[in-house]
């Protein structure tokens, strides 16, 4: 049985004059202890995917249809009281910016103890012992003293470690990390990722890593979803996707990596911008930016097909692959 | 901490100097003290002689320094009407006013927090909309009108509550007369307190609501939800504490302002406090008393603001009073 099974999840935003679709029939699975990366540009729907799994979409967003099964239980549309017992307990989340995630007027100890006490009958002293233990696991020096400190007394990297420790407090089955290092110094980013990887593997915790950084995804995850304009356009083993991307968008992303460009040359970027949710093009949402687009792409939306060991939503994947092969043989 | 206190003390002294200068300038320009002293049947020669003796012909600055020297020793002149030191007259009236302000503060603090939090949590509920509508009405109606309406309804029509005076006060600590020790005292202070609170309460409800709604949008509230914390704890621990920080700052200033607002309330309810006294002093052109009142109210303002800043430093962990002195 898989840990998480998402089927045809559709999330909409009820705006003043129209309802826009932010997630369009997303489906994916996550096994126990498996690590999954979700990549895409800003606005692709990565974060919304994370928040809808926690049922934490803020208004006007709502889950329109689809199913989310977590440990065999349907949790889409679960009443808030029941969902609350899952959040932070069996499913934890790590937010993007540690500078604004912790409450500035509560001590680290208060914020850790309340999390434990929200889900377990524990005395304060016992809860503090668990908190100290978890802080030690994320290599926080002198954890006993940290409990009495306020967030502003700690650095960003330290705070994100504490947030990781908080996510692990109740030994969850799944951690959703939404760009956990974007707001941190480059020098600390690698440390935090390494720590997260280490803790997830040693505790057999499933991880959904939301990021725009393909490098991070290739180091951290076993499988990857590539999202564009609210849809999954390519899914498969991370290695396959990085080494042999099928969708023109994924290819564009990988070609845009600095490593793919010779020194002194301009970075290869994908022309244009991600469309707004209110103006998603008909047919394939990527067609205006796609170098291979044909008439067919502008009128009909591509279905997901299996191709070369990945799932890809592109009409022209066949032709594309052949052209690339011809290029290489030439 | 000590450095901060010293810094605040210097600020307070600067403010008091400014207030005293304004107060003195008023005294110097408002009416002729000689007319109050000797009437009209005295020759111009005697007047000039008296002026010299009283030092009224000295330069403005010399006179101000003399006034300041006396003020520091607690002498703010003698009331023309009461023939008593102005400070003594005010100190006698002070307890009545402070009790009135205290009563209003109790109402404001007790009601604004629950109402503000409620309207922030359920902004679309009918009751929240009624509260917000009523708060606009409350802010718009002047204090004296609210006071008169309440007297008409509760004292004249239903005769539930008395309409004027302090009623039976109980003498405590050898100096203070209090309304809060007898039922009659409570019944007398109720209407004036409500009237005085009628402007500030809606203001605070709206302030708390606006701050709270902003805090509820913050990342740390969203994170608390993601940790599975109960909504009650999110509202009253996570959000409220952050909401109240800016409210405390505004609140301190408003307590000072309320002392000034007592002029209207005390006049309508014939409340024997400093506000009522001030209006009478203005009618009688009792300049020393007017000036003394301004200085005392200024002093109360400075003291409450300093105390509020200190409390803010204690409540907000990101403010380090020890470091702020540097």
Automatic annotation (TrEMBL), chain A:
Membrane topology: Peripheral membrane protein
Alphabetic keyword roster: ATP-binding, Cell membrane, Membrane, Nucleotide-binding, Transport
A GO molecular-function annotation: ATP hydrolysis activity
Gene3D superfamilies named in the record: P-loop containing nucleotide triphosphate hydrolases
Residue ranges of coiled coil: none
Predominant location: membrane
Pfam families membership: ABC_tran, oligo_HPY
A single Gene Ontology CC term: plasma membrane
Gene Ontology biological process terms from the UniProt entry: peptide transport; transmembrane transport
Domain ABC transporter: 6-254
PROSITE patterns: ABC_TRANSPORTER_1, ABC_TRANSPORTER_2
Localization annotation: Cell inner membrane
Similarity section: Belongs to the ABC transporter superfamily.
Protein name per Swiss-Prot or TrEMBL: Oligopeptide transport ATP-binding protein OppD
Automatic annotation (TrEMBL), chain B:
Protein name, UniProt field: Dipeptide transport system permease protein DppB
PROSITE patterns: ABC_TM1 (PS50928)
Localization (cell): Cell membrane
Organism: Pelagimonas phthalicica
Transmembrane segments: 9-26, 100-118, 130-154, 189-208, 243-264, 290-315
Record's keyword annotation contains Cell cycle: no
One Pfam match: BPD_transp_1
Domain ABC transmembrane type-1: 94-312
């Amino acid at each position: 049985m898989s840990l998480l099974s998402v089927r045809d999840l559709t999330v909409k935003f009820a705006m003043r004059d129209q309802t826009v679709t932010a997630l369009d029939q997303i489906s994916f699975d996550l096994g126990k202890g498996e690590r999954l990366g979700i990549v895409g540009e800003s606005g692709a729907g990565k974060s919304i995917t994370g928040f809808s799994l926690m049922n934490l979409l803020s208004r006007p967003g709502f889950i329109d249809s689809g199913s989310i099964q977590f440990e065999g239980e349907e949790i889409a549309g679960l009443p808030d009281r029941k969902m609350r017992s899952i959040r932070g307990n069996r499913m934890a989340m790590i937010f993007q910016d540690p500078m604004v995630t912790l409450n500035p007027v509560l001590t680290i100890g208060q914020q850790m103890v309340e999390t434990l006490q929200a889900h377990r009958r524990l005395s304060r002293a016992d809860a503090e012992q668990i908190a100290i233990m978890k802080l030690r696991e994320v290599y926080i020096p002198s954890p006993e003293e940290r409990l009495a400190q306020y967030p502003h007394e700690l650095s960003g990297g330290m705070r994100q470690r504490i947030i990781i420790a908080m996510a692990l407090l109740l030994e969850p089955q799944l951690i959703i990390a939404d760009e956990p290092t974007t707001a941190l110094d480059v020098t600390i980013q690698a440390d935090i990722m390494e720590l997260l990887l280490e803790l997830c593997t040693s505790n057999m915790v499933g991880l959904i890593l939301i990021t725009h950084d393909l490098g991070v995804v290739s180091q951290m995850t076993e499988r990857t979803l590539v999202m564009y304009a609210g849809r999954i356009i390519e899914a498969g083993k991370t290695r396959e996707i990085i080494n042999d991307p099928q969708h023109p968008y994924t290819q564009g992303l990988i070609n845009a990596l600095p490593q793919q460009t010779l020194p002194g040359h301009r970075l290869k970027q994908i022309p244009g911008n991600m469309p707004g949710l209110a103006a998603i093009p008909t047919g394939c949402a990527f067609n205006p930016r796609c170098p291979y687009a044909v008439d067919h792409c502008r009128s009909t939306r591509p279905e997901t097909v299996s191709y070369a060991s990945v799932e890809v939503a592109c009409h022209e994947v066949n032709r594309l692959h052949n052209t690339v092969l011809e290029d290489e043989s030439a | 901490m000590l450095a901060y206190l010293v810094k605040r003390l210097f600020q307070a002294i600067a403010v008091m100097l400014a207030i005293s200068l304004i107060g003195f300038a008023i005294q110097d320009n408002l009416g002729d003290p000689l007319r109050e002293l000797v009437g009209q049947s005295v020759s111009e020669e005697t007047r000039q002689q008296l002026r010299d003796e009283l030092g009224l012909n000295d330069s403005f600055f010399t006179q101000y320094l003399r006034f300041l020297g006396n003020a520091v020793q607690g002498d703010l002149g003698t009331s023309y009407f009461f023939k008593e030191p102005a400070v003594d007259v005010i100190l006698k009236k002070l307890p009545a006013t402070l009790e009135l302000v205290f009563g209003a503060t109790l109402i404001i603090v007790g009601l604004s927090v629950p109402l503000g939090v409620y309207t922030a949590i359920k902004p679309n509920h009918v009751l929240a909309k009624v509260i917000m509508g009523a708060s606009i009405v409350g802010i718009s109606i002047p204090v004296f009108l609210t006071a008169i309406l309440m007297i008409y309804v509760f004292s004249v029509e239903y005769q539930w509550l008395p309409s004027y005076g302090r009623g039976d006060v109980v003498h405590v600590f050898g100096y203070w007369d209090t309304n809060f020790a007898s039922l009659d005292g409570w019944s007398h202070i109720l209407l004036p307190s409500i009237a005085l609170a009628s402007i500030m309460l809606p203001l605070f409800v709206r302030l708390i609501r606006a701050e709270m709604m902003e805090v509820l949008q913050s990342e740390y509230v969203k994170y608390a939800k993601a940790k599975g914390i109960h909504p009650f704890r999110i509202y009253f621990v996570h959000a409220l504490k952050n909401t109240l920080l800016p409210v405390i700052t505004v609140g301190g200033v408003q307590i000072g302002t309320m002392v000034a607002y007592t002029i209207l309330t005390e006049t309508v309810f014939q409340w024997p406090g400093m506000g009522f006294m001030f209006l009478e002093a203005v009618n009688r052109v009792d300049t020393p008393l007017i000036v003394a009142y301004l200085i005392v109210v200024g002093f109360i303002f400075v003291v409450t603001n300093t105390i509020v800043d200190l409390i803010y430093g204690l409540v907000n962990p990101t403010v380090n009073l020890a470091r702020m002195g540097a």
